[in-house]
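Loading example: each entry is read as two labelled lines plus one structure line.
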Amino acid sequence: MNKGKFSGGWKLDQARIVLAITVVIFAIAAVTLSGFLTTGNVIAIVRSVAVLGILALGMGIVIVGRGIDLSMVAIMAMSVAWYLQLLNSGWSDHSALAMALLFVLAIGAVNGFLAAYADVPAIFVTLATGSFTFGFVRSQLIPQDAVMVPSEHWIIGVGQFRLEGIPADIYVFLALSLAAFLFLRFTKWGRYIYYAGDNPVAARNAGMPVRPMMVLRYVLSALAAFTAGLLTAASLQSINTRIVNGTLLYDIVLVAVIGGIGLSGGKGGVKNVLIGAFLIGVLLNVMTILDIPELYQNLIKSTILLIAIIVDGLLNPRDEQTAQQGDI
Amino acid sequence: MKLLKTFVAAATIALTGLATSAPASADSDPGPAAYHEALNGKRVILIPLAMGFDLAQGWAAILKREVTAFGGTFETRDPNWSTEAGAQAITEAISSTPKPDVLVVMAPDLNSFSRLLKKAQKAGIYVLLIDNPANFKADAYLGSDWTNLGALEAGAAVEACGEGTSGKIGLVQGDEVNATSLFQYEGIMKVLDKHPNLKVVAKPDSNWDPTTSRTVTATMLRQNPDMCAIIDFWDGDATGAAAAIRDAGLQGKVKLITTGGGEKSADCDMLENGTYDAVVMTELVREGGDMVAMIKYLLQSGVQPGEHSAYIYTLEHATTKANMRPDSCWDLKALQALAN
C-alpha cells in the first residue's frame, strides 16, 4: 500500500508533479494569452473535459481495483445511439431508456462476470465486449453511424440547460466526482476496492467479497459511459458512433494515469482524475488558442505524460513489493 | 425418291433463305445484345471509407440498382473507417474468384492504397476512385474537385463577411493527411488571399470528430466573439461547431459554412433551421450516375485497366436557404427503397 497516502505524509508523487505542471501552464497562459483568464474560458476548459472526466471516473474506479475497461467508448456511443434509434422508430421514452439501461447494465455485468468469475484478464474481456457491442449495435440495431436526437426531446433540453452560465455537463461531472469520492473514501465497498486492487488474494482471504465487487466496478464504469454518452448527445443533438474508432479511449486512460492512478491498482482516487482532466483541459485550450497543429498537440501531450512517468519513477522507485504485484 | 430428295433440299434452301432474310428487317439495333454480352455477370465491388454514412449508402443504393439491372452482381465492403480493413478488402477482392471486374474505391488518404490499386489494375480490374483523390492513376476519378470546393466555401464566407463585419474567419479543418482536407484548405486560402480585409484567425483540426469541433470552436469564439464566419470541413463534425455557436448565443451572427453529402436530414434540414448557412453539397445522384456510366463504358470499351485515366468532377455550388430548391437534397430512405 502506498505509504503516506492516508497518513497525510507529503511526498512528491506523480499527481503533485502533474498538478504543478498544470498550474505553471495555466499561470503562463493567464499572463500571456489574452482572453484566457475569463470566466467564460475557464468554463469552456472545464466543459471540454467534463465528458472525458466522467469516463475517467469510471475508468479510475476500475483501475484502482486493478482492472481496465476498454469497452467504455463503445458502450458510451452504442447504447446512446440505440436509445436514440429506438426513439426515432417510435418507442416511448420510458421503454427506450429502460432498454438502453438494461443493455448497459448487461454489458457491465458480463465484463465483470468474465473478469471476476471466469478469471479472464480484464484487458481481453473488455476489448472483446467493446468490439462486440460496437459490431452488434452497428450492424443490427442502427442504420447509420450518426443518429439524431428527436426534436423536442428532453436530451436537447439538457444540452441547452444553463445555471449561472454553466452548462449541465459540468454539474454532472462535479456531482459524479463527489459521488465517486464519497463512495471510494467513505463506504465499506469503496475502501475494499483499494485492498482488492492492492492485493486481491489477501483481500479475499480477509473475507472481502472480491468477485461481486469486481462485477460492481464494471457496472459502474458502464453507467459512467452511458451518462457521458447522453451528455455528448445533449450538446451535439446527435451521436456519431465513429467516435469508437478515435483516440478517446487512450485519452481516458491518459487522464486517469497522468493524474497518478497507478495501472498496478490500489492507488489513487477522484483527486487524481480531476488533476489529469484539469491538465488535459488546460493543454487543449492553450494549444487551440495558439493554433498548434494536431500532430504537435499529440506530441506535446505524450511528452508531458512521459515526463510525468519518468519523474515519478525517479522519485518513487519501484521496491520489491511493487515489483512483485506487477502491472496489468 | 429422287424427286422427294430434291423437293426436301429445295424446301430447306427456301426456308434457310427465309430464315436469314426475314428477321433482317427487325434486327436493326445490335446495341442491346452487345450491351448484354459485355455487362452480364460482371462483378462490381464498392469499398468506401465506411458503409455507415450518407454518401456511401447513397452510392451503394444507386450502384446496386443499376448493376443488378444490367445483370451484374454488386457487393460492398465496410472498412468502418479503418485504412487497414480497407486495404484488406482490396487485397481479398483482387485474389477472389471470380475476380471482380470493377472496384469502386474511396481512398482514406493520398498514398495508402496506391500500390494495391495498381495491383488490381494489373490483375485486369478497372479501378474507379471516388470522392477522395489519391496518388494513383485510376481508370477514372469521380467526385469533387476539393480545391474548387474550398473556393466555393470561401466564396460563401466572403459573402458572410461583408461591410461592417470584423472579417474574422475560423477554419475547423479535418486532419493533416486527408486530401479532402488539404485541398479544401488550399482552395479556401486561394480565395481569401484576394480579400486582404478577411483574416483567418484560427485553423484547428477536428480529426472529423464533432466533440473536438465543438471544443475548438468554443475556444475560437471565446477568443474572437466578433467572428463573421466559420468554415467546418465536413457536415459530420460541423454539428459540433454548430453546437458551440448555439452555446455562445451567436447563431445567425457567426455564419457556419460546411460541405456534405447532400442528404436531406444532414444538410437541407440544417440549412432550413439555420444550423448551417451554406453547404457545398455533393450532387450524389449525378455523381452516382457518372459512376454507372463509367462502369458501363469501361466494360465495353476494350480499354485495358490502367491504360487511360480521366477526372470527372461533379458540378458544385454553395447551397443556402435562399437558393435551395426542392431537389437540392436527396433522401436516403427514398433512394434505398428504389434499390430494393
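Chain B is about 45% helix and 15% strand.
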